[in-house]
Please model this.
Amino acid sequence: MLTESERERYARHLVLPEVGEEGQEKLKSASVLIIGAGGLGSPVSMYLAAAGVGRIGLADFDDVDVTNLHRQILYGTSQVGQPKLSAARERLHDLNPEITIETHETAITSANALEIFRGYDVIVDGTDNFPTRYLVNDACVLTGKPNVYGSIFRFDGQASVFYAPEGPCYRCLYPEPPPPNVVPSCAEGGVLGVLPGVIGTIQAIETIKLITGIGEPLIGRLLLFDALRMEFRRLKLKKDPNCAICGEHPTIAQLIDYEGFCNPAEAGEITPAQLAAMNDPLLIDVREPYEFQQGHLEGAWLIPMAQLQRHIDAIPHDRDLVLYCRSGSRSAYALEMLRGVGFRRAKHLKGGYLAWLREQRAGAASR
Model:
């Protein structure tokens, strides 16, 4: 039930037939987690707080920097150097003391995302990097939460609602991340300061629609905004039956290494020394049988490259895998094949068996 002070505060909502007291009570009972208290998180959090969302969670671990202030309207000059979350909590409580603000001063990772997400009704993605976007998407799919997505760059923005039970997820739109360093960050490419206000406000609207059940959310649609032309476009999105996490036969059943997924060349290679430090990895030799007979790593499983596809179902997803060949070229190709079907814990040995032999001989000579 709404209190008298709440009825007064939300009077302009209550006169809207689509919202009314029932809708305002839904907002009061709802919980929303906002990932990132920056350019997008600023307008989202302020408008959701003003609208009366009863419990708002903020996840961030940065301090306020002077370069934030042209777009992150949650903060002021006097707060430069302060932790963002303490500054944000103070501002949002001043805006609406009737609500609860929870802070998660930590990076959202594969280790904590599912536990944190389960405590909220709606997740708002205000992040600015691909590893976290894929992490947020996958955690939302696995926990059954709607993902209110927004992104900004220079003069362009995007917004959508990815909700796997009712439509496509982020992976349906972007099955693979762009190659590393192809898409510059906002720090490198710049961003119009007003742009996150437009996209963040759209995210706030979509969140309110999801909570109250009014209107038509952006599920299955991607909204594109060009600030220079002042032009909006909408693209229809379809659920991908082959999506790795929400498709008909998903290959991702748990959160993965998202830095490795988005930077496969760097994360996919290991040196002989790094291999020696690993804890019981499954070794897969993709050479031919005659090469294997001439010498191999102890405990390795021989699956020649030409037979790898037919043995994929027998390879476990829940173990660290290390592929190797003679010099690293075949194993790099095998790694790409396995990662393409969901083996995110797979790596390959840089330099192959020959590099391993050289390391062993060098170690013996030094003793």
Notes: The two ends are 77 Å apart (CA to CA). The first strand starts at residue 31 and ends at 35. Residues 264-366 form a domain with the Oxidized Rhodanese; domain 1 fold (CATH 3.40.250.10). Residues 168 and 239 are 4 Å apart (CA to CA).
